[in-house]
Design goal:
Helices cover 21% and strands 13% of the residues. It is an alpha+beta fold. The structure holds heme C (2 copies).
Length: 359
Amino acid sequence: MPARHHVWLLLAAVGLVGCGDDEGTRADGAVADAALVDAGGPRDAAADADFTAPMLLSETGLYSDIASKTLAADVTAFAPRWQLWSDGAAKQRWYRLPPGTHIDSSDMDQWRFPVGTQFWKEFARGGRRVETRLLQKIGPGEDWFMVSFAWNPGETEAMAVPGGVVDDPGHDDIPQQSECFDCHAPVRLASVVIGFSALQLDDATRAGGSPLAALVAAGQLTAPPTGGSATTPYFPLPAGDAATRDALGYLHANCGNCHNAGSDVKFAVDLELRLGLPLTAWSSSAAVRTAVDVVNQTAAPPPGASAIIEPGMPGASALYLRLTSEDPVFRMPPLARELADPVGGEAVRAWIAGMTPTP
Ligand code: HEC
Ligand code: HEC
């Protein structure tokens, strides 16, 4: 893995930190070169010619005025109903589709986005912006540019940090580009975009109405689902059993991008924690099938674990112990968090505790 660096020391060295007039200008030299590293696999030459990696967040088109945090008019906010735990960071997310384009929804579980699509995710801790991550589709197939931008102390600009930042203010680090690919990669999940999906947006309980219904109404899907509306889900969740719903939703969002049927992780761990559509009954979901119905032996048990899930016994279940572990050897997800999520941990504990123990 490439060495990480303390980016603000480097930025200070090139004169970008703390002096208002310099902020917003492009830095030349070593830092700029480093930011042009592309995280993708083999690249399309034509796309390469068209695409210039942004160095500053203000160059990505998220804001029309970054100083006042005024968003560009064609950027839309969204939030998945179940979210990734990031050591308690407050997150905001936005996207932009190129004008006149559509999302290919022919596979409702794996949407494909047009070239030029952008997604951003902002992380704030203690009321101040720390980083904003960018996914930008730059070529056919699943060719995406990925990088995080670290905000300066005055929050007037954020600078690409392809090498990541260790110990950003607050908890956890800003991932380097190769770490984006640990989670956002076709070998893990066919769609590189994880949280902007039919299941995650089909939330008819939202104050403003279902985000999926808004996409359908705007004609943005090539194969729109039917039967739902702003206040009625297109893919209703199985009725009842709130404990199972909360646990499986949490595992879908936090684990399903690595632990699913099509992932390379499946070769090492026979565990599927991603929900697929339609959802007929929780008992027939892949998570229940692979983690509960079979006595799933653990290859690398944390202390106390005797199986992936021991029905009725969270404390003997590797899945619960790893989800709540802060030990880098065992914690899941293995990267991009340092602290355990008290809410998600409790949802999974309650789900396992409510199962009938195997005699
Ligand atoms: C531990 C796995 C993990 C790592 C590492 C990771 N992400 Fe994500 N990312 C997710 C998950 C899961 C979601 C969707 C859930 C959510 O947003 O709460 C997501 C959402 C996003 C989104 C919103 C669009 C979408 O896919 O839903 C962007 C943008 C994004 N990530 C960018 C990045 C970038 C850039 C990096 C590297 C600097 C990165 N991520 C590293 C797991 C990860
Ligand atoms: C970035 C990809 C990634 C994410 C996200 C991820 N895992 Fe894992 N997981 C792995 C890999 C790789 C292994 C195998 C290596 C190991 O055992 O640590 C693994 C192993 C495991 C094991 C051990 C299986 C055994 O045989 O003992 C469990 C349990 C597990 N993961 C649960 C989870 C849970 C729960 C989540 C979400 C909270 C999660 N994982 C998220 C990649 C991931």
